[in-house]
User: Fold this.
Amino acid sequence: MANPLGMMKKAAQMQRQMKKMQKQLAKRTVEVKNGMVTVVAAGDMTIKNITIDPEALDTKSLSQVERMIAGAVNSGLESAKKMAGAEMSNMTGGLGGLSEMLGG
Assistant:
């Protein structure tokens, strides 16, 4: 039978480490370019910056610019999600006992 006090201590430790991880992920960013639009997304799934090349506004129709923005934002968020997943995977390996608590 598992030690309930030990499991509670591990859960509290895991919660502290997850909060720390969330703060770290908010500081890490990825940059994605889609045509003339560049998006910077953070590991906490927020968009930090969108840059549109001025030529895009001169030479493209509004719908083309909108598609470039949507594509860049989606790609940025997908890249941020992958980066965050990799970071979480690396960090959870060091949580000590997580796999045992989750039945692994």
Remarks:
- DSSP finds four helices and three strands in the chain.
- Strands lie at 29-34, 37-42, 47-52.
